[in-house]
């Protein structure tokens, strides 16, 4: 271990230096007020903490809350739900993130008796035979009282304990509207000692990690993150720590077993250790936590700055900032803080002094860092975080809070990096603006017009006459253009006109507009090769309320044509809502001047993509409108299935797969597509009966090697300009297409085909198709549809990057060195594990449930390289 600590120091010294300082968290840890103190505390938050630079409060609630689920657990000084809401309101006004803390596992009783949980439920006591000492007892040299007692623990193996603790945690998270919760888990001296824990056969580390991960799973289910103190994860004898500062009962080994999305509160009060680097190299985010010694606090800050500046990407981002702890009476801290704030304090060793000293030192370091970079003529990066403040300058150390503010600070060519849930309402990009907007992943980064879906009254993006706009690794949601006053409400989430938009690993969902519920495209910027390009993108659950194009509406205008390429994407569960509307997934209608007969084309190519579950009166998957102007739509290796038309009379009967309305100048090229199981209305049928209607009114320039459910499509295929070949007309008994979207590998969900499917090796080679929707290599004779069946999953680039599952030690072996991001999904498509592997060639997956099939999506240096199927 000592060698490991030395290597950590060497790692910090020799790694590459980055030029920015990024501390998102500048906080304090204090006790919750008594009921009579709540109003004074709220005033303190709004008028002292917020204006002084505090952006996070770790609030030690413990059992000082009036629980509804188990009222007997509440302390005599518990605050009410109304009190909690007052505190939340003040924190919101002060732009402070509130993190409630409630002690779990340890700290359940002291020498003076049990705390509230064990008093109400004494059967939860891990060591009932250890007596409580008397108030007059004297601790020994280790701080232990007669009988060995320091702080009691509850038993993590008791069959009823989690029923109670999860109810309490859930109430606290809800009451404080928390996005982050801390179960503390510090100073756990009693663990694995009762018969229940011993019979599990688990080590103390496994018991500790099991409890931490169980609480984390529950906290995550409440859409919150979890922070814990780090002392039980440090081996006391190797770090030179006390009984309280480090583990002497082998819980320290749990550092390799806890979930990697748990953040560590690394507290040290007398020295500055390199433990932040230790936790960061374990893949954990870390926050330094000093107390009332400003000299120690400043040393910890300087170390943290150096640790961060001398690190590469993932390591750089794991040092989150600092929280100064105060363990005394709240009113004393308020007095100290106000004296220190106004320069009147005479006591140097206070937590308040430590906070102001760290904040001032950070400002000096940041200022010098800015001076050192002065004169650099490069495009800048602006940072946006839900923990930011719009009064900030948008640096990594001082991010802004809204995307609107970041846009105002940017110039053309800049990059904006976004973390968390960020408000982005009516963002306007114009005047040839070029911009990159990048998140940390669509499952963790969200852009939305308001704090709640029902409050939304604006779209997210309005992109008109801009240059190249690149958006990646983000979810864009809840746009609502219907309620925008004095605006034509097209494009629920995104409206784009005469620009070039790139979406990469983006989810566009839950948008609402008259036309184009998800995205409305009106022309591409007039520049050589410019196009809109959507890859690995999901457009889902959007709706058009009065017009066509539930997911995507594409048109051109009098000035510009539209060029659109969609690949490896899924357009699913979008819908139009009213009679005579078209194109639940994609609707295309080029511009044409009816007087001059001049117009502009829409040239659209869709490759390796899935259209699923979309609804419209007609053309639920893809449709074109009534404007007839030369337009080319090319579809290669797509799956268009299980879309539904809901036309209610014969006048609007037609296809639910692809439908064209009297537009002979719009031509389709269909190669290697599955267009099947789409329910629509047959023309000439008076009964309200639905049939599998894959094609209607389509003019085809080429139709080769496609699969349709039945021969109703033959009429249109037979009129293809090029003589059609290789088309099949068979139902799902022969096609064997899955009826539910799943993560079968790759970034987007798709529909798989089973062994024996008529789609296997039934396609023709095409220069545009080298891989399927998941990024799996297609063999010499490709399959039909977006999914390539393989008996054992192939890799996109097997020579450059190979991976496999090693059953003997339950690891995924990575035969490549780099920054690996690995996401693992079960058969239902649920993500069950997400890890980052740096400077190693393996990932242990022991914590997955055994004897189950899993899919691993493996990315190296931000680029998808392979998918892997394995049985744990």
From TrEMBL:
Q: Which organism is it from?
A: bioreactor metagenome
Task: Indicate whether RNA-binding appears among the record's keywords.
Answer: no
| SMART domains reported for this sequence | PbH1
Family of the protein in this entry? Belongs to the glycosyl hydrolase 20 family.
Q: Where is the Glycoside hydrolase family 20 catalytic domain?
A: 80-290
Question: GO molecular-function annotation terms?
Answer: beta-N-acetylhexosaminidase activity
Report whether Hydrolase shows up as a keyword of the record.
yes
* Entries under Pfam families matching the protein: Glyco_hydro_20 (PF00728)
For this protein, the record's NCBIfam families field holds: choice_anch_Q, Por_Secre_tail
Q: What is this protein called?
A: Glycoside hydrolase family 20 catalytic domain-containing protein
The processes (GO biological process) annotated in the record are: carbohydrate metabolic process
Top-level taxonomy: unclassified sequences, metagenomes, ecological metagenomes
Q: Which InterPro entries match?
A: Choice_anch_Q_dom, GH, Glyco_hydro_20_cat, PbH1, Pectin_lyas_fold, Pectin_lyase_fold/virulence, Secre_tail
Which UniProt keyword terms apply here?
Hydrolase
């Amino acid at each position: 271990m000592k060698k490991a600590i030395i290597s950590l120091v060497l790692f910090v010294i020799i790694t590459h230096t980055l030029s920015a300082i990024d501390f998102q968290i500048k906080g304090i840890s204090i006790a919750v007020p008594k009921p009579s103190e709540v109003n004074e505390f709220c005033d303190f938050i709004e008028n002292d903490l917020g204006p002084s630079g505090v952006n996070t409060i770790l609030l030690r609630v413990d059992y000082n809350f009036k629980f509804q689920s188990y009222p007997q657990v509440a302390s005599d000084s518990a605050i009410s739900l109304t009190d909690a809401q007052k505190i939340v309101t003040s924190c919101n006004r002060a732009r402070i993130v509130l993190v409630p803390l409630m002690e779990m596992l340890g700290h359940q009783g002291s020498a003076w008796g049990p705390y509230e949980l064990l008093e109400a439920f004494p059967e939860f006591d891990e060591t009932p035979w250890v007596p409580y000492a008397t108030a007059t007892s004297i601790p020994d040299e280790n701080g232990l009282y007669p009988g060995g007692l320091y702080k009691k623990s509850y038993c993590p193996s008791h069959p009823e304990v989690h029923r109670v603790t999860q109810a309490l945690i859930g109430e606290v998270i809800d009451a404080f509207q928390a996005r982050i919760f801390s179960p503390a888990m510090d100073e756990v001296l009693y663990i694995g000692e009762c018969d229940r824990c011993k019979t599990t056969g688990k080590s103390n580390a496994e018991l500790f990690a099991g409890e931490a991960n169980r609480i984390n799973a529950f906290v995550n289910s409440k859409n919150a993150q979890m922070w814990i103190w780090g002392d039980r994860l440090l081996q006391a004898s190797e770090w030179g720590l006390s009984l309280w500062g480090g583990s002497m009962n082998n819980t320290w080994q749990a550092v390799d077993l806890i979930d990697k999305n748990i953040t560590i509160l690394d507290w040290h009060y007398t020295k500055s250790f390199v433990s932040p680097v230790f936790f960061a190299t374990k893949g954990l985010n870390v926050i330094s936590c000093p107390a009332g010694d400003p000299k120690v606090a400043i040393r910890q800050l300087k170390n943290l700055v150096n640790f961060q500046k001398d690190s590469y990407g993932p390591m750089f981002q794991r040092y989150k900032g600092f929280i100064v702890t105060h363990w005394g009476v709240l009113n004393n801290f308020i007095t100290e803080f106000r004296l220190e704030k106004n320069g009147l304090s005479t006591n140097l060793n206070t937590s308040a002094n430590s906070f102001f000293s760290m904040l001032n030192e950070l400002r000096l370091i940041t200022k010098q860092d800015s001076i050192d970079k002065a004169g650099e003529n490069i495009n800048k990066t602006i940072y946006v975080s839900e923990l930011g403040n719009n009064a900030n300058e948008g640096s990594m150390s001082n991010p802004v809070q809204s995307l609107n503010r970041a846009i105002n600070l940017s110039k053309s060519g800049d990059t904006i990096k976004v973390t968390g849930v960020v408000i982005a309402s009516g963002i306007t990009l114009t005047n040839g603006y070029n911009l990159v907007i990048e998140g940390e992943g669509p499952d963790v980064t969200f852009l939305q017009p308001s704090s709640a879906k029902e409050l939304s009254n604006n779209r997210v993006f309005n992109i008109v006459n801009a240059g190249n706009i690149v958006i990646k690794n983000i979810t864009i949601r809840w746009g609502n253009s219907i309620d925008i006053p004095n605006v034509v409400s097209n494009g629920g989430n995104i409206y784009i006109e005469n620009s070039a938009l790139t979406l990469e690993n983006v989810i566009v969902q839950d948008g609402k507009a008259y036309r184009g519920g998800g995205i409305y495209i009106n022309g591409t910027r007039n520049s050589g090769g410019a196009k809109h390009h959507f890859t690995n993108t999901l457009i889902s659950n959007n709706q058009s309320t009065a017009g066509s194009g539930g997911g995507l509406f594409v048109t051109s205008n009098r000035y510009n044509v539209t060029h659109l390429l969609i690949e490896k994407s899924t357009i699913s569960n979008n819908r139009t809502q009213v009679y005579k509307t078209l194109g639940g997934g994609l609707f295309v209608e080029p511009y044409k001047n009816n007087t001059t007969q001049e117009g502009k084309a829409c040239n659209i190519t869709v490759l390796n993509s899935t259209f699923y579950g979309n609804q419209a009166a007609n053309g639920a998957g893809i449709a074109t409108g009534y404007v007839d102007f030369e337009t080319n739509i090319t579809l290669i290796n797509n799956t268009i299935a299980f879309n539904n038309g809901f036309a209610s009379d014969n006048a609007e009967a037609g296809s639910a797969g692809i439908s064209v309305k009297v537009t002979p100048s719009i031509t389709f090229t269909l190669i290697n597509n599955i267009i099947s199981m789409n329910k629509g209305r047959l023309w000439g049928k008076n009964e309200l009966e639905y049939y599998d209607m894959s094609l209607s009114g389509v003019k085809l320039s080429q139709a080769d090697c496609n699969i349709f459910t039945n021969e109703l499509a033959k009429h249109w295929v037979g009129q293809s300009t090029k003589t059609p070949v290789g088309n099949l007309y068979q139902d799902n008994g022969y096609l064997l297409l899955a009826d539910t979207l799943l993560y079968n590998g790759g970034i987007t969900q798709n529909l798989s085909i089973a062994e024996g499917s008529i789609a296997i090796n039934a396609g023709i080679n095409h220069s545009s198709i080298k891989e399927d929707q998941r990024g799996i290599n297609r063999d010499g004779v490709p399959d039909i549809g977006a999914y390539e069946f393989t008996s054992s999953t192939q890799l996109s680039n097997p020579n450059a990057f190979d991976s496999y599952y090693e059953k003997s030690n339950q690891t995924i072996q990575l035969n490549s060195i780099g920054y690996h991001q690995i996401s693992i999904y079960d058969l239902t498509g649920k993500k069950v594990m997400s890890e980052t592997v740096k400077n190693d060639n393996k990932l242990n997956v022991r914590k997955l449930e055994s004897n189950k099939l899993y899919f691993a999506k493996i990315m190296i240096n931000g680029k998808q390289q392979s998918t892997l199927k394995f049985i744990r």
